[in-house]
Amino acid sequence: xxxxxxxxxxxxxxxxxxxxxxxxxxxxxxxxxxxxxxxxxxxxxxxxxxxxxxxxxxxxxxxxxxxxxxxxxxxxxxxxxxxxxxxxxxxxxxxxxxxxxxxxxxxxxxxxxxxxxxxxxxxxxxxxxxxxxxxxxxxxxxxxxxxxxxxxxxxxxxxxxxxxxxxxxxxxxxxxxxxxxxxxxxxxxxxxxxxxxxxxxxxxxxxxxxxxxxxx
Length: 216
Ligand SMILES: [Zn+2]
Ligand SMILES: [Zn+2]
Description:
Elements lengths: L1 H7 L13 E4 L3 E5 L5 E5 L5 H18 L1 H30 L1 H6 L2 H10 L16 H13 L6 H10 L16 E3 L9 E3 H10 L14
Antiparallel strand pairs: 1-2, 2-3, 4-5
Helix pairs in contact: 2-3, 3-6
The structure holds zinc ion (2 copies).
């Protein structure tokens, strides 16, 4: 019954399970909270693994853009999952192939290593993204806890100094979200928050000083 609804549905499946009740999407389907707090799953209308993955990716991307609540759940899951997966990989690969990195490696070194060793990063929710899903999740959570909004003082100061966001090349307007490039540099390069997230898709280095994005 519900499978048929999704098949015919031209719009998003929010009519079937309201966005607020969605707890997550995975390769099996949409998990949501229904009657009496029980968890239900609407399975994807296909048996093909490839198509299931496409459905998952499609809805995940829409929800990441549209739902703060879903984004928070997804970010937390990435962080928790990565901790376990990292331990696992460190166990299986690092100690065997690179014992020094296994003991001392930072996240970025680990990330580069996993690339050169051709470890399937899809299991971490990373596709072609040079910044790890873990760092993006940490960055988003960090911003949620310490949101930075352009106020009148900042707007005036950046305008006087001719400072712009070096990613989109626009000035900082009142009430826009901004953030400092996450890293160890004392330079504190500012960009729009959304521009940094966009930058993470293609590049993990600061557009101004090429410092790699990191959280200590
Ligand atoms: Zn910008
Ligand atoms: Zn910089």
